[in-house]
From TrEMBL:
This is Transposase IS200-like domain-containing protein. Transmembrane segments: none annotated. One of its GO terms (molecular function) is transposase activity. It comes from the Bacteria. Pfam families: Y1_Tnp. It comes from Granulimonas faecalis. InterPro entries: Transposase_17, Transposase_17_sf. PANTHER family: TRANSPOSASE IS200-LIKE DOMAIN-CONTAINING PROTEIN, TRANSPOSASE, Y1_TNP DOMAIN-CONTAINING. GO terms for biological process: DNA transposition. Residues 8-122 form the Transposase IS200-like domain.
Amino acid sequence: MPFARRQSSSDIYHITTRGSGRQIVFEDDDDRRELLRILDEGLEANDVGLLAWCLMDNHFHLVAEGDADDIPKLMHRVNSTYARAFNHRHDRVGHLFQGRYLRLPVEDDGYLLTLVPYVHRNPERAGLSPTSAYPWSSYHEVMEGCGRVDVERLLDLFGGWDGFEEAHADQGPPPAPGTVRQRDVQPEALLEMARSLLGGTDPKEVKAMARGERDFALATLRKGGMTVRSIERLTGVSRGVVSRAPLG
């Protein structure tokens, strides 16, 4: 089954929508407010909950909880409605987003504990703003105790506000690809590392994915610190293909 369409046993998914050709999808704050307005309507109409969100210049992240049939309805509504509004406002035509959104299953709380800070810290990793100063993510909703995300659920997950802040503290940049000393790591540990990075997906499934989904999975493993050689062994994808997968 394709990587981005696996069903989650927890009904929680990490969703990413990117601009076509990495183009800007939010020209200004009015665009961002419009996306959030459409998202709010879609969440209510499709009975989907939200655990995290972050709007970047050329893409956005959601961590959503809902039935496998409701998530596609939500994303079709959000992406198509926003694309029409964006094109009308900026007098443009053509596709705004890069194909279908990516949807990764979140199978357990352990992964969710790393995913929520990952989503919120996108602006910091991109060099745009410290996490606590960036206005276009759900970090502030949690810290202020209200918003479109399930604040009570998140605080319970992180053990309160102190635990939430600690999880978002700057721990330095993520390891560069190839820096983990994996020759000293047991194969079982490498397999578990890959599964964790892929949200519970078995790395052996990567080889059969559609090209875009495959490259996204390979890039996720590399950005998580796995070596090209380890990825080749775990996925069965050739070293050349792994190396060429875009990291942007």
